[in-house]
């Protein structure tokens, strides 16, 4: 690789990787350095079990990636100028006065937040909470996790000096500097969407401690340098630690290769995030009724979107079949789904029973029985049910976005791992009735690296970032097909989904 060298650490809900990026002034080239699994750990306590993230292992994997990058580059990685970390949203670590973790971060799929939404609305008016934060109500959001913290681990919260969201936690242990990056802070339901700062009214209304929160930083902020201790431990040269768009969705959003201002994006991984980009938050009665979220983006933009359960349904189903002794590749699952009969079974991907880990195929069958549909028995039928239901849910959210913004859109930019599924891409085009432009698969990494370039002053703004991404990748276009069949299926689907 030639040009400016940077590292992007990208943590998803099921795996992570460290990637080396090289910028030659026109395009970014990527090289994989280190890839690893991200598996939750369940511990059984006296009264209940808790699902944790294995943060210590994940930080070790990050250091392994840095070491390998240095070896690849030679000269102790002296040419690597910076590193940025992005992760999934909402989760956090609590630190004591000595700056060390008080406990492993709890996984958002842990059951402790059940009932916290109802409790929150007993403390603060629902509409007022949405009016301030503009955030989609989900029990996994940080505000409701902290309420659960008060209920189940109050003594731990009292000991806490600081709360850092996951990308900020990794960056702190790299650099020694604390801050709350804006895009990840906007996933908490504690940020004022207009003021772009923590909301005292929300914190007071929900009874949450403001003392543990750190100042909000904009993406593209230099936090500091890699700690001297880490440089010595890893035999690596100094590099800047940059607060990139810490929420992986917003790193991916920065890399959407759109040429126009009005566009739709679908960041498709373990979660699907479907939305558009706005100059200012849209918070009104219609967006409240649709439960849309206004998430902080790069360049002062707002991502107006909805969170939808995504490839988690395929991933967790595959894990279940592995537990039963059948190990299918994702390509094999797609092939079996392609051969299954269309439009026979429908589910709501966001039904609460699909959130926890476990036997997803069985829960899909139970959903179909409860809604008086035929029941998918074969593997291909289950996967086809998931893919079609996701595509039709995307159509539903598209209708909501158009109704909220009053705009029409000419295409959907589908980025992330889902861009590798030709079947899902084609189904999404068919369901939405507009072309799907698939790619880049590594949008999150591209966006992470691009914000490091912005921090270094080598790239000016989002418009230039997206031009660089178009130079760096080839996208595939899926044109809509079978319009009448999919419109009829959408009508059927609406009967089973709110």
Helix segment count? 19
Biggest sheet strand order reads 17-18-16-15-19-20-21
| Head-to-tail CA distance between termini | 50 Å
Number of strands: 21
* Proportion of residues in extended strands: 15-25%
Domain Carbohydrate kinase FGGY N-terminal: 6-253
Protein name: Rhamnulokinase family protein
Keywords: ATP-binding, Kinase, Nucleotide-binding, Rhamnose metabolism, Transferase
Domain Carbohydrate kinase FGGY C-terminal: 265-456
Brief overview, please?
Residues 6-253 form the Carbohydrate kinase FGGY N-terminal domain. 40% of the residues lie in helices and 20% in strands.
Describe this structure in words.
The protein is an alpha/beta fold. Helix content is 40%, strand content 20%. It has helices at 55-73, 116-123, 126-133, 142-152, 154-159, 166-175, 182-185, 200-206, 228-234, 248-254, 285-289, 312-323, 330-339, 360-370, 379-405, 422-432, 443-455, 462-472, 483-494, and strands at residues 4-11, 15-23, 28-37, 41-44, 49-52, 80-86, 92-95, 162-165, 180-181, 191-192, 197-198, 216-217, 221-225, 240-243, 264-268, 271-278, 293-296, 302-309, 412-415, 436-438, 476-478. The strands form 6 sheets. A 7-stranded mixed sheet has the order 17-18-16-15-19-20-21, sandwiched between helices. A 6-stranded mixed sheet has the order 3-2-1-6-14-13. A hairpin with a 4-residue loop joins β2 and β3 (28-37). α10 (248-254) crosses α17 (443-455), α15 packs across α16 and α15 (379-405) crosses α19 (483-494). The chain is globular.
């Amino acid at each position: 690789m030639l040009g400016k060298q940077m590292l992007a650490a990208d943590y998803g809900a099921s795996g992570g990787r460290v990637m080396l990026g090289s910028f030659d002034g026109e395009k970014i080239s990527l090289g994989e350095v280190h890839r690893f699994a991200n598996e939750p750990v369940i511990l059984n306590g006296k009264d209940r079990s808790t699902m944790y993230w294995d943060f210590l292992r994940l930080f070790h994997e990050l250091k392994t990636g840095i070491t390998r990058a240095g070896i690849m580059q030679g000269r102790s990685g002296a040419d690597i100028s910076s590193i940025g970390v992005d992760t999934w949203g909402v989760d956090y670590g609590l630190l004591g006065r000595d700056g060390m973790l008080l406990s492993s971060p709890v996984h958002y799929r842990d059951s402790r937040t059940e009932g916290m939404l109802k409790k929150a609305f007993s403390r603060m008016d629902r509409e007022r909470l949405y009016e301030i934060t503009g955030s989609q109500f989900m029990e996994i959001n940080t505000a409701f996790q902290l309420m659960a913290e008060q209920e189940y681990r109050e003594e731990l919260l009292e000991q806490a000096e600081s709360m850092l969201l996951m990308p900020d936690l990794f960056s702190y242990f790299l650099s020694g500097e604390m801050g709350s990056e804006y895009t990840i802070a906007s996933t908490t339901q504690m940020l004022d969407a207009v003021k772009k700062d923590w909301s005292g009214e929300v914190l007071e209304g929900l009874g949450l401690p403001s003392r543990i929160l750190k100042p909000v930083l904009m993406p593209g902020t230099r936090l500091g340098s890699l700690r001297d201790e880490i440089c010595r431990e890893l035999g690596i040269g100094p590099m800047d630690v940059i607060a990139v768009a810490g929420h992986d969705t917003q790193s991916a959003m920065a890399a959407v290769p759109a040429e126009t201002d009005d566009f739709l994006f679908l960041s498709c991984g373990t979660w699907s995030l479907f939305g558009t980009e706005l100059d200012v938050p849209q918070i009104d009665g219609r967006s409240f009724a649709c439960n849309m979220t206004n998430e902080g983006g790069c360049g002062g933009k707002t991502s107006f979107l909805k969170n939808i359960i995504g490839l988690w349904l395929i991933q967790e189903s595959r894990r279940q079949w592995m537990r039963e002794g059948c190990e299918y590749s994702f390509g094999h699952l797609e092939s079996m789904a392609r051969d299954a009969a269309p439009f026979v079974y429908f589910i709501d991907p966001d039904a609460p029973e699909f959130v926890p880990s476990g036997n997803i195929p069985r829960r899909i069958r139970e959903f179909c029985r409860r809604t008086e549909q035929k029941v998918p028995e074969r593997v291909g039928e289950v996967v086809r049910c998931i893919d079609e239901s996701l595509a039709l849910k995307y159509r539903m959210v598209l209708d909501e976005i158009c109704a909220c913004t009053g705009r029409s859109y000419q295409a959907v930019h589908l980025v992330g791992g889902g861009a590798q599924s030709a079947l899902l891409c084609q189904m999404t085009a068919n369901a939405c009735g507009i072309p799907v432009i698939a790619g880049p698969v590594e949008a999150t990494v591209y966006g992470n690296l691009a914000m490091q370039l912005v921090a270094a002053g080598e790239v000016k703004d989002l418009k230039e970032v997206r031009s660089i991404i178009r130079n760096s990748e080839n996208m595939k276009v899926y044109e809509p097909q079978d319009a009448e069949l999919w419109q009829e299926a959408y009508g059927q689907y609406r009967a089973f989904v709110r």
